[in-house]
Design a protein that fits this description.
This protein is an alpha+beta fold. 44% of the residues lie in helices and 22% in strands. The chain is rod-shaped.
Length: 180
Amino acid sequence: MTLLYSPQANQQVVRQSSQGFSLVEVLVSVLMIVSFLAIAMQTLIAATAIKVKSEEISDSTAWMQDDLEAIKFEANRLDSTLPTPPSCGTYANALRTEIASLPQVTTLPNGRQFMVKTSGERQYILERDLNENGNLLGITHRVFRDVDKDGAKDDASDDAAIGELYSEIIPDAAFGCLNA
């Protein structure tokens, strides 16, 4: 009688499979874990960089909107604050003069106005470029990162604009010129 099942051969197979992982299997698993961790860390760093950039853009947009609201407030009350009202066609110039006197505003010799803003340890420059045309005041807001923290956009490191906004404002008093 011949046996198809041999207990001694089966025990040999069981003993070989219980010896553990081979060196190649261990190295492959370590390489897979290290590559997964490296990819996860790169993803985490990229997500953090995107978060910081989006916070900068959000803050710069809020600053530009706040400044625009302050300018619109001055445009609404322009006629009542001046001792002598401006003549028709010069309201934009009067508004430019009025907003230059707002707190924290510095006017450069070329007519540009800027303010220094701080968020955490970062310093930013909010720049206004004003363009007047009769009663219409065109305003271009730009926000720059002030890398050297000197409060002026004076070098190449400050040139990358984070945000930009263009708007046009007509003072309320200028609409009285239409009836005159």
